[in-house]
Amino acid sequence: MTRLEQRRIKKRMYSWWMVIILAAIAYIFLVNTYDVYIKYKESKSNILGLEEKYEESLKRQGELEDNISWLSSDRGVEEEIREKFNVVKDGEEVVVIVGNNGVTEIEDVEESGFFTDIWESFKEIFR
């Protein structure tokens, strides 16, 4: 290869067209890399969410296994029946305790006349 041919090749390699083509290829690579990065971040957050759900389901499974073992015993079945159906065994007595929850206090109410009500309404206007 002569120097003239080397200059032509070098001139073509460093021309504006070649720079534009290489920039376009680099842009395409960057866009695709960014898309992969976004998918990676989404996948990572999905994995974290699924791990949390898995831990919750393991905890729930342990609770359910405890309930199953409790209900497998005679005492557990008896307590569950007593609680759900409000029953007692033969020979047992039921004691009902009534609290003050239903009692309300009665307040003294001052009775007022017609003119007193009008006067109070009139005073409320100017407050």
Element layout with pairings:
Blueprint: H1 3-13, H2 16-72, H3 74-85, H4 114-125
What does it look like?
The chain is mainly alpha-helical and 127 residues long. It is 72% helix and 0% strand. The protein contains four helices and no strands. The protein has helices at residues 3-13, 16-72, 74-85, 114-125. It is elongated, with a radius of gyration of 43 Å. The mean pLDDT is 85.
Provide a concise account of the structure shown.
The chain is an all-alpha fold.
What would the keywords be for this entry?
127 residues; mainly alpha; elongated
Beta fraction of the residues? under 5%
Low-pLDDT segments = none
Name the helix and strand elements from N-terminus to C-terminus, one letter apiece.
HHHH
Kindly, what is the distance between the CA atoms of the first and last residues, rounded to a whole number of angstroms? 106 Å
Given the structure, what is the number of helices? Answer: 4
Taking the sheet with the most strands, its summary is: none
Number of strands: 0
Structural class: mainly alpha
Q: Mean pLDDT score, rounded?
A: 85
Shape: elongated
Helix content: over 70%
Computed over alpha carbons, the radius of gyration is 43 Å
